[in-house]
């Protein structure tokens, strides 16, 4: 859903507030006359309770994001739905900042519809919540960090350094009581959820304890079975190690015997090689002798052919 969360860190004086309202109205096409938004209107609305009073720091007044959405909603309800100023003030004071922000992008509520809802609501609801918060303030809870943060956001801040050249202050206004009450409701819901989760956890632990206590014999049987299993695994590991040693010994013996056989075969091969070399030498000598005889025969034939030619 579209919201004005981009302006959530807004903090400035009345002039800055008017400029931000006019810019946001133009951006989202809200029917707000720019000429009607001025510092006089801001001060008037703050005096009538239509918007929250600003945070005062000496002569400076600081407005924040809540004032921004309150001012836009007030102008829209007044001009588009013709609400009375009294009902606009009541609506803006009773509605949280987050809901005001979301409502700007929803169809606006009719005046008579809000009047009926306001009539049935208990006027003392806010007072009762504040009283309950005071009673519970002394309780030790797991949300201490949230309480510290809430306290820091709601207390009146010390005066800061002088405002900048535009007259704005860097200090954000404190949270409105409506937002504080909404935060208290949220924290209450979280506490109830934590208590419920703790009770469920406690119940589960109790059930587990009862099951364990009722099944003590089964637990001992399980431990005994586990011990027997570990003993069997150790025996299997020992047998496997012995078999591995025997296998490696057998392989070593085979390799040693094979080595002797290879040595014998190599010796036979050497002797055979020597015999072949000797035989080759004899064959070479015979071939040389044959070649010499053949050459002598060729020479004799050539001589006889020469003699025949001469005669």
Q: What does it look like?
A:
The chain is mainly alpha-helical and 311 residues long. The protein has a domain at 5-205. 72% of the residues lie in helices and 3% in strands. The chain has helices at 14-28, 39-48, 65-80, 85-94, 97-103, 111-120, 125-136, 144-154, 177-214, 216-310, and strands spanning 11-12, 55-57, 60-64. It has a three-stranded antiparallel sheet. Strand 2 and strand 3 form a beta hairpin. The longest helix has 95 residues, at 216-310.
What topology does this entry show?
Blueprint lengths: L10 E2 L1 H15 L10 H10 L6 E3 L2 E5 H16 L4 H10 L2 H7 L7 H10 L4 H12 L7 H11 L22 H38 L1 H95 L1
Antiparallel strand pairs: 1-3, 2-3
Helix pairs in contact: 1-3, 3-4, 3-5
Supply Rg.
53 Å
Structural class: mainly alpha
* Average pLDDT for all residues: 78
The SSE order reads EHHEEHHHHHHHH
Report low-confidence residues grouped into runs of 5 or more.
Answer: 137-144, 150-170
Number of helices: 10
The gross shape turns out to be: elongated
Helix fraction, binned, reads over 70%
* Strand count: 3
Record the strand order, biggest sheet.
Answer: 1-3-2
Q: What percentage of amino acids are in beta strands? A: under 5%
């Amino acid at each position: 859903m579209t919201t004005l969360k981009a302006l959530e860190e807004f903090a400035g004086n009345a002039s800055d507030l008017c400029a931000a309202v006019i810019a946001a109205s133009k951006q989202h096409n809200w029917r707000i006359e720019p000429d009607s938004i001025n510092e006089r209107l801001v001060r008037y609305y703050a005096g009538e309770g239509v918007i929250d009073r600003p945070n005062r720091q000496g002569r400076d007044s600081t407005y924040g994001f809540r004032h921004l959405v309150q001012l836009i909603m007030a102008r829209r309800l007044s001009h588009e739905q013709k609400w009375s100023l009294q009902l606009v003030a009541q609506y803006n004071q009773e509605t949280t900042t987050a809901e005001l922000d979301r409502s700007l992008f929803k169809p606006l509520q009719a005046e008579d519809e809000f009047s009926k809802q306001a009539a049935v609501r208990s006027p003392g609801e806010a007072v009762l919540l504040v009283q309950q918060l005071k009673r519970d303030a002394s309780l030790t809870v797991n949300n201490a960090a949230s309480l510290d943060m809430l306290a820091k956001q709601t207390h009146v801040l010390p005066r800061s350094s002088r405002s900048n050249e535009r007259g704005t202050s860097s200090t954000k206004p404190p949270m409105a009581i409506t937002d504080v009450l909404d935060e208290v409701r949220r924290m209450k819901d979280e506490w109830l959820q934590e208590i419920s989760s703790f009770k469920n956890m406690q119940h589960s632990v109790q059930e587990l304890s009862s099951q364990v206590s009722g099944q003590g014999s089964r637990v001992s049987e399980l431990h005994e079975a586990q011990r027997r299993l570990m003993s069997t695994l150790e025996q299997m590991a020992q047998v496997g190690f012995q078999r591995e040693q025997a296998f490696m010994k057998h392989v070593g013996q085979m390799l040693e015997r094979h080595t002797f056989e290879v040595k014998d075969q190599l010796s036979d091969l050497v002797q055979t090689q020597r015999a072949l070399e000797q035989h080759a030498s004899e064959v070479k000598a015979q071939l040389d002798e044959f070649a010499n005889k053949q050459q002598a025969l060729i020479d004799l034939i050539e001589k006889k052919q020469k003699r025949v030619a001469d005669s």
